[in-house]
Every structure is written in structure tokens, then in C-alpha cells.
Design a protein that fits this description.
167 residues; 5-stranded antiparallel sheet; globular; alpha+beta; 3-stranded antiparallel sheet
Length: 167
């Protein structure tokens, strides 16, 4: 098994860039970055000082339910390219540690799966969690504020082999 780091879906970002409302039905706020600390959830890079960004409520779950956490995120105000190097730890994950937590196929937290994890162990810890039958995907969240950073999915090696044969 390998894993892939997933940015927010392009359709979600495009909705917001085109004037759409956030998870609370409000228009995103615009501000200017004063330096590191504003990670864009679409390109998974930090937003440089002087660049405009959107601050908004985001819910990375398909529908409302008690475990569908909603919280603040940042997004480049101008469209950016979605993160594509999915097998590589995203560059915005520059803190010393993050919460890494598993979710079931029902999009609910799998109790006991969350742990504050040193950044250098995110990949190996996510692989351990995703090897479990009860965990469908993993979130990486801020260890200080619980803000959503990105999602991690398992990619079966067979899927890579099938894709290679199709080329």
C-alpha cells in the first residue's frame, strides 16, 4: 500500500473563487498575508507575504452529521494549481507536529485513531492507520488549533500497476 495526500477538491476551490459561499453560507473574508502561517488548502503551499487570501469556513465532509467538523481555512484569493505531488509530504506541513486522525466509511471519527504526530512520522503513521479495515481515510489537522490541513487516502499498489499497463 502507498498513500496519497489530497488537497481540497478543485470544484470546492473554484466555487469559492467564483464568489460562492463557505460552509456557513457566508462570503469568504479577504486579507493579505504577512508571511508564513497561511497554508492554502488547494495548492498545499504557504501563501507568500503580500499575497491576498481568502479566510473561510470549510467542511471537508460530504454531508452534515455530528462528526462533520467545520473550521477556518485559508485559500489563495487568485486561482492556484491544485497540489499534484500526492505521494510527497505537502510543503505547507512545516510545523513540528500535527493531529493525524482516521475516519470510517461513514465519515465519522474512528475513536482512538487520533494522535499528535511529529511531522516526520505523518506518512508512516497514516500508513499504519490506513492498513486497518475500519479506517477509510485520514485527516491531517493542526495540533494547536485542529484546523483541517489535508486528507490522506490509501492507494492500492494494484491501482498503480493497472494505470501503468494502460499507458
Amino acid at each position: 500500500m502507498t498513500i496519497s495526500f489530497k488537497a481540497m477538491p478543485a470544484a470546492d476551490a473554484e466555487h469559492l473563487w467564483n464568489g460562492g459561499a463557505d460552509a456557513y453560507g457566508r462570503q469568504p473574508e479577504t486579507m493579505t498575508s504577512d508571511g508564513p502561517g497561511y497554508p492554502c488548502r488547494h495548492c498545499l503551499k504557504n501563501i507568500d507575504a503580500g499575497e491576498e487570501l481568502l479566510v473561510l469556513a470549510y467542511r471537508p465532509f460530504p454531508e452534515l452529521q455530528p462528526y462533520a467538523e467545520t473550521g477556518p481555512i485559508f485559500l489563495h484569493k487568485q486561482p492556484c494549481r491544485r497540489y499534484a505531488a500526492e505521494e510527497v509530504l505537502p510543503p505547507m506541513l512545516a510545523s513540528t507536529d500535527y493531529i493525524v486522525r482516521g475516519y470510517g466509511r461513514d465519515d465519522r471519527i474512528v475513536y482512538g485513531s487520533g494522535a499528535v504526530t511529529p511531522t516526520e512520522r505523518i506518512t508512516s503513521h497514516a500508513e499504519e492507520l490506513l492498513a486497518r479495515d475500519d479506517i477509510a481515510y485520514v485527516h491531517v489537522r493542526s495540533a494547536r488549533n485542529n484546523c483541517y490541513q489535508c486528507r490522506i487516502d490509501k492507494v492500492e499498489v494494484r491501482a498503480f500497476a493497472d494505470a501503468a499497463l494502460a499507458i
